[in-house]
Amino acid sequence: MNDNNRFDIESLGAPQYSSPLELSTVKGDRIFNFVSESDRLVFDPSVQYYNQCLNDGESPICMEKAGPRQNIFFDAKTTTAAIVTCGGLCPGINNVIRGLVMALHYFYGIKKIIGIPYGYEGLNPEKGHGFVELTPDKVKDIHQFGGTFLGSSRGGQDVSVMVDTLEKNHVDMLFAIGGDGTLKGVNAIGGEIAKRNGKISVVGIPKTIDNDIDLIDESFGFQTAFDVASPILRDAHNEATGAYNGISIIKLMGRDSGFIAASAALAMPVVNFVLVPEMDFSLEGEEGFLKVLEKRLQEKKHAVIVVAEGAGQQLFKDRKMVKDASGNVQHEDIGVFLKEKITAYFKGKSPVTIKYIDPSYIVRCAPANSSDSVYCSGLAYHAVHGAMAGKTKFVASRINNRYVYLPVAEVTKKRKKIDLEGEFWFSVLQSTGQPFFLG
């Protein structure tokens, strides 16, 4: 595929109905305009890329602008929508569910909205979960709570069985809220539908607390995660300073990417060490972590360590590769490991008091904060607009602070990680004062 076409969105066919939204088609009449199919946003807004395109005589790589279309593919009077939430919990899932239901019902007049319980399992009749009818009254207050109103599960199901279920229940559009594995499932379901020449729109809404979805600005729930974690770091600091050579170790989520740990440390700048999956570090040696920690205690008599769950996995010998139902590698417990290693290192040297804190499951079950709540509503609304226009196998997302549609295949090619040579990580190093390299 030509790079200029890499962000093109698949369509179920030509729009054949007029949108019920009473928006403008005229610029400058003070009413929001419909978004045209020709509306595009440049992926890379840098001057360097602009000059490169000028020099090469090529058009820039662009993305499809999200928003309501004047002509839509589905007839709202006969349309059935379905919503499923998959994978681990994350702040904001209920906000997205609520936003989808409200937009489908009030914007487009869709009356039949199905909730699929317990992730993709709910599309397998053998599991016996049944369906939940979703109405505005049923979801109007769910945004006040964390978790997911519909329940979730990990792991995929037989794609043919899932599509059979969608067809049997006359589902016209499926909204899947989830992370990397869920979005790959969206692609697989969309591919099976295409093989059958079906007309079901399949839409992904990227959800991962780790903020590791590639290309997009950030995934929903991420800001709430480090917002909730920040006061925990404050209290851990108080715990550490309350004892001679006090050490607090706080383990936060971050399987392959350390954005929560790093962002929480920046938001609450009492952290002295941030250990993330992107960095390899050693424990032993003059520049190893234990020696640097010892120097810190000699100078300040306390230390606060934030470690992402996927950090330091190279330190485990004879580690066995075990995966969960979603295909994610299950990591060894780096927090407990660090506590044991630090205890052993200082034994006979000097007394230390270590407190180990793991608030991970509290953080991920928190309700969305105000910023995430706004973001979740925006994602939900734009996902509905795209589905109603007949677009499929796409995610609603935000890039360069603008809402866009991206092909699922593009955002699942790789995971987003912290650039250890980038400005963000440099800010973390400045905040903590930890060395550029540990070992």
From TrEMBL:
> What is the protein's species of origin?
Flagellimonas halotolerans
Keyword set for this entry?
A: ATP-binding, Cytoplasm, Glycolysis, Kinase, Magnesium, Metal-binding, Nucleotide-binding, Transferase
* The UniProt record lists the keyword Kinase: yes
Q: Which reaction does it catalyse?
A: beta-D-fructose 6-phosphate + diphosphate = beta-D-fructose 1,6-bisphosphate + phosphate + H(+); beta-D-fructose 6-phosphate + ATP = beta-D-fructose 1,6-bisphosphate + ADP + H(+)
One of the Pfam families matching this protein, by short name? PFK
Q: Spell out the protein name for this chain.
A: ATP-dependent 6-phosphofructokinase
Annotated positions binding ATP? 88, 154-155, 179-182
Please name the GO terms that the record assigns under molecular function: 6-phosphofructokinase activity
State the similarity comment: Belongs to the phosphofructokinase type A (PFKA) family. PPi-dependent PFK group II subfamily. Atypical ATP-dependent clade 'X' sub-subfamily.
The Phosphofructokinase domain is annotated at 81-385
In which residues is substrate bound?
208-210, 253-255, 309, 361-364
Assembly and partners? Homodimer.
Marked site positions, Important for substrate specificity: 181
Q: State its Enzyme Commission number(s).
A: 2.7.1.11
Name its pathway.
Carbohydrate degradation; glycolysis; D-glyceraldehyde 3-phosphate and glycerone phosphate from D-glucose: step 3/4
Cofactor(s) needed: Mg(2+)
Q: Where in the cell is it found?
A: Cytoplasm
Question: What SUPFAM superfamilies does the record point to?
Answer: Phosphofructokinase
**Would the keyword Ligase be found if you checked this record's keyword annotation?**
no
